[in-house]
Design a protein that fits this description.
GO molecular function: protein-disulfide reductase activity
Order of helices and strands: EHEHEHEEHHHHHHHHHHH
Number of strands: 5
Protein name: Thioredoxin
CATH topology of the largest domain: Glutaredoxin
Structural class: alpha/beta
Largest sheet: 5 strands, mixed
GO biological process, one term: response to stress
Keywords: Coiled coil, Disulfide bond, Electron transport, Redox-active center, Transport
Radius of gyration: 25 Å
Number of domains: 3
Strand content: 5-15%
InterPro entries: Thioredoxin, Thioredoxin-like_sf, Thioredoxin_CS, Thioredoxin_domain, TPR-like_helical_dom_sf
Number of helices: 14
CATH architecture of the largest domain: 3-Layer(aba) Sandwich
């Protein structure tokens, strides 16, 4: 096994004290395994390595079900390996089988705050408040303390965008770890970058409105006004402008009106009254 202080062998005699009572102090990950189980042997070094890298933020408790058959039966273990997470005296989640390390990390991170989580929240607040140098320092500290946290890279993209480095931010988002490819926060960030790019060389709002009043077919002015509305948090106005653009000029920007509406939906988390209303309007206009 291991001499690590973060990994212990659990028996029927100490399960109550180590797992149940211990989980009030920190999460306890219980690995029910057996020597004859090949997936168990594959999983064991991954769990041990993660226990070391998480440095005490959870305790790995190993239960040899060959030696502790009564304990395994008592806790309803019917498949090996079974890995169960306990917090505050209760099982809160589990998985079965030998998952890849990345999926195990995702499992753990749903329940165990990372060492850098507080710094990332501080950095997010700093970006929102415009304290960009402070945010950069917080992200640098987070990376030094927790270099394997993929969400640091995501906040670094947001920082670039806040600095107006739109091209660099777009390139950086394409380099994000594959595990974040379908993350809702990444999709929302892609949407913000789409609209930020549209404003790089755009005229001021008054000029754009004057252009649109003079020529209702000015698709560029309509789209850039929508982008300004997004930057101001006025998503309803943005969606109305984009819907009208989609109705009038599907060719502009390779269907920028429809794609822009989808980007705003992502910004809004994909649900809510505003999203439902404009999704219905979009479908009606399309079909």
């Amino acid at each position: 096994m291991t001499d690590s202080p973060h990994v212990v062998t659990v028996t029927a005699e100490n399960f109550q004290s180590v797992v149940i009572e211990g989980s009030y102090e920190r999460p306890v990950l219980v690995d029910f395994w057996a020597d004859w189980c090949a997936p168990c042997r594959m999983l064991m070094p991954l769990l041990t390595g993660l226990a070391e890298r998480y440095a005490g933020r959870f305790l790995l408790a190993k239960v040899n079900t060959e030696e502790e058959q009564t304990l395994a039966a008592q806790f309803g273990v019917r498949s090996l390996p079974t890995v169960r997470l306990y917090k505050d005296g209760q099982p809160v989640d589990e998985f079965m089988g030998a998952l890849p390390e990345g999926e195990i990390r995702e499992f753990l991170d749903r329940h165990i705050p990372r060492a850098s989580s507080g710094l990332l929240e501080q950095a997010r607040t700093s970006i929102a408040e415009g304290a960009l140098e402070q945010a950069a320092a917080q992200l640098e500290q987070a990376r030094a303390e927790d270099p394997e946290n993929n969400r640091i890279a995501l906040l670094e993209v947001e920082l670039r965008a806040a600095r107006g480095e739109v091209t660099e931010a777009e390139a950086a988002i394409d380099r994000l770890p594959i595990e974040l490819a379908n993350d809702p926060e990444v999709n929302a960030l892609r949407g913000r970058l789409r609209f930020a790019a549209a404003l790089v060389d755009a005229a001021d709002e008054a000029t754009l409105r004057a252009r649109l009043e003079a020529d209702a077919t000015d698709s560029e002015a309509r789209y850039q006004l929508a982008a300004r509305a997004v930057s101001q948090g006025d998503h309803a106005t943005a969606l109305e402008l984009l819907l009208e653009l989609m109705k009038r000029d599907r060719g502009y920007g390779e269907d920028a009106g429809r794609k822009g509406m989808l980007a705003v939906f992502d910004l809004l988390g994909g649900d809510g009254d505003l999203v439902a209303r404009y999704r219905a309007k979009m479908m009606t206009a399309l079909y």
